[in-house]
Amino acid sequence: MTDSSLTAAAPPQALRGNLGTGDIAFFVISAAAPLTVMAGIAPVAIMSGGIGAPAAYLFAGIALAVFSVGFTTMARNVDAGGAFYAYITRGIGKRTGIASACLAVFAYNALQIGLYGLFATATQATVQSLVGLDIPWPVYAFAAIALVALAGYRNIDFGAKLLGVLLVAETGILALTDAAVVVQGGAHGLELSSFAPTNAVSPGTGSLLAFAFAAFIGFESTAIYRDEARDPKRTIPRATYIAVGFLALFYAFTCWTIVEAVGADQAVQIIAKDPTSVVFNVADQYVGSWAANTMYVLIISSVFAALLAFHNAINRYTFSLAREGILPARLGRTHPKHCSPHTAGAVQTALAVLVVAAFAIAHADPYLQLLIWVNTPGVIGIVLLQALTALAVPLYFKRTAYKESLVRTTVVPAVSAVLMAGALYLMISKIVLLTGASATVNSVLVGCVPVVLVAGYAVAAVVRSKRREAYDNLAQPRGALTPEPPANTASTAS
User: Fold this and answer.
1) pTM for the full predicted model
2) Would residue 487 count as lying in a domain?
3) Is residue 100 part of a domain?
4) Cβ–Cβ contacts within 10 Å for residue 51, how many?
């Protein structure tokens, strides 16, 4: 709820949609960009940490499935938009909730805007290879910004259909390549040494887990779509588990087939010679040149799908914060026809234009600098938010009367908080593997996250002082779903 001036400026509006479990799952799996991860990141993980990479993706998936238990329990019981910040607010307190909201907006923007560098790089290389045109990368980046803005402007159901088509295409070509490797027996016959304890748990495990956890970023955005879901209390948990389960199994299996395709005994050495081309070479060898060429094209659509998915997530986070009275009320407006948060989308698009233009003017490398430097703080920020959310779950249910099991509300979330803290430590300690940058650059990239969090606490103090009604009603039930029963012990954290 907002103060009277805010309400007068922008009457309450609501997002509307008819998203089912599959639609939401498409959004979050698209944000993870499976083809991009497998073709661009998995070979580097194998090269850096060894052939135990398939097991690392399974470990990360299990850890995130554990996190999802508390996360989805909160989704069923907390009728508030904003996912991370709403749950953290209700569990830890309003100051930390607002600070986490600021961090979420920063992190998702960093992830989305950085991907324009990858889109530009992939498109530039593909066009040059297929038709011989050498077009500067900023042209592709700005074209992508315009297309994402247009798709995000439309009704959410339109975006779901588009992402569904793109996701089926990218996973289909990978699945076809996986099947060809298995049918043909790989390089020297199929075996499971990638999952052997000596390879699954080795000196390189820490670096592998850092890559693996980063590959799942985006799955948690299921809860952001609760206002547009057909039955959010059921569809959000289902979509979350489907996304985590699919990604864990698909990543592990595809990564294993990459190892088998080149031969486990020499996989690290072979991949190290040309890690960025190994998956395309595997497709060429086991399926045919048409498959490799198709994969080059589909990796562009894979990145575009991730850009659109993150754009949608950012817009809904911003929209929710505007409705709460934390951000300007204008950002809480929806389009009269498409029912999309079009004003929030326009602001996100403008920010992307400014950042991409700054890197273009500086003649920065679109992959090594725009992608890596901008994405890294976003990845760290999201994992920190996951750890805070896991911590918030038992704190919330300790004060609230609900008929949920102790395992779901306390035991599993506590284990998850430890696992997420461990993942965060791995990412920071192995940051050089993710960025390849100098110690100074890495310090700045990591340091962005606590700086944003501290700034968020400053924002919380201003909101508490200037917009007390909005502060007091932060992340409270909005009446869209069945209202929560009152707490039976203490009040919501302040």
Assistant:
1) 0.84
2) no
3) yes
4) 29
